[in-house]
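Case study B.
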Amino acid sequence: MDLESVVKKIREMRIRGALDIAIASASAMNSVVEKSAKTTPELISNLRKAGKKLKSARPSAVSLPNSVNYILYLADKKRDLRVDEFRRELSSEISDFIKEQKNALNKISEIGSRLIDSGDVILTHCNSDTVNGILKRVWKKRKKIHVICTETRPMYQGHITARELSSYGIPVTMIIDSAVHHIMKELKVDKVMVGADTVCVNGDLINKIGTSQIAVCAKEQDIEFIVAAESIKFSPLSITGKIVEIEKRDPKEIIDPKKLKGVKILNPVFDITNSEYIDMIVTEFGVIPPQASYNLLKEKFGWGVQA
Ligand code: RI2
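Model:
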């Protein structure tokens, strides 16, 4: 996929979900590698410009800058190569990186599926390929589960979740976002499982707006709150959720402002769930408590990756 169309699609949320954003950005960077440039420095400079454009497309999912920065880091390590060698090597490492992300999803599906018991009622929010991967694996293992999914205003990504899981055979019930507290009691929810846009160094979670309210409700009712996140979603730069920019999108996604003249409409699309509300995070390396996010980051990135 070429750079301009990936940037546009990410901005318009036609490419969405933190992992898909990371993979699409990597293939956009690869399309730049394949384009003509006479020298390696020229190609590196084109990659830097492309990286900047990609990173500006959506601010809250760290998988996007992580993916771009990793590729720039690889490019920088190869800066002494001839342009044809540079192109060949970098292209092959980008496709390895993409494969690694897909493998991570597969590993998380397996590890996460072990956390779910037959008979569990699981509540999820928004649409996460990672959570769906786990739930499908659980179903494949013939564990009988029931999934409750929120519709996820304003963009209704919950509809995607509902369609995907129910077409796989999993019993799904959809509720409006504000029914979570009530339904947790009425349908005796056992576990909440959500995806992640960013996991901060201290284990705070940035995820779809409404996640933090669900976490508070889960805590009140002693329901396990599980996050499913590949290591690409861990942010080496954010000490706490407070310093991650929360994306605010067009109010028109909620309502035509002309219909509510004189009313200010706000549309923040992510929120911060404090790590103390999170019981565990499933990653491709295993299950960790949120407090161990620092160790996972140090293990994965060392301190080499730059902003
Ligand atoms: P996967 C989504 O955001 C949701 O917040 C979801 O939890 C997260 O991305 C992770 O998605 P959006 O892109 O990588 O719909 O698990 O705003 O698919």
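Strands lie at 121-124, 146-150, 172-175, 191-194, 198-199, 205-208, 224-228, 270-273, 280-283, 286-288. The remaining cases will be described in the next quarterly update.
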